[in-house]
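Budget justification aside, the reviewers requested a transparent look at the raw inputs and outputs of the sequence design task funded under Objective 1. We therefore reproduce one unedited record. The lines immediately below are the structure tokens for a 125-residue chain.
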């Protein structure tokens, strides 16, 4: 089950798509993007998209659009030259614009055609 971490803000930057080669010989693509939160102390937050569907959705969103990003926090431990280091990453798994999120909320339910149950006045009390 995914942790329900979400943040809303303005999409202010989309970085180039990168292909990364791993030590195991596999390749993966990623795209980083920046969302600026609103409020008294706006913060620029960097996310990473690694799934093709998230990157294609991201590329259809215009800079300056209000977005909602659902993400997981990922942590990595590494070692270089005998020194241990840690890296945190916010991996986006869904990106919605305000309009897309409203449309999803309006139509993300099952419509039933069950007849309305009639209330009865023959209660025992």
């Amino acid at each position: 089950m995914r942790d329900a971490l979400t943040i809303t803000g303005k999409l202010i930057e989309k970085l180039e798509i990168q292909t990364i080669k791993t030590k195991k010989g596999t390749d993966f693509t990623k795209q980083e993007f920046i969302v600026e939160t609103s409020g008294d102390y706006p913060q620029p937050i960097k996310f990473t998209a690694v799934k093709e569907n998230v990157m294609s959705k991201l590329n259809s969103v215009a800079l300056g659009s209000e977005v909602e990003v659902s993400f997981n926090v990922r942590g990595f431990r590494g070692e270089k030259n005998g020194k241990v280091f840690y890296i945190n990453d916010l991996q986006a798994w869904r990106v919605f614009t305000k309009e897309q999120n409203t449309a999803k909320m309006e139509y993300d339910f099952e419509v039933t055609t069950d007849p309305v149950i009639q209330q009865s006045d023959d209660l025992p009390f």
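The longest helix spans residues 98-107. The mean pLDDT is 81. Computational costs for records of this kind are itemized in the attached budget.
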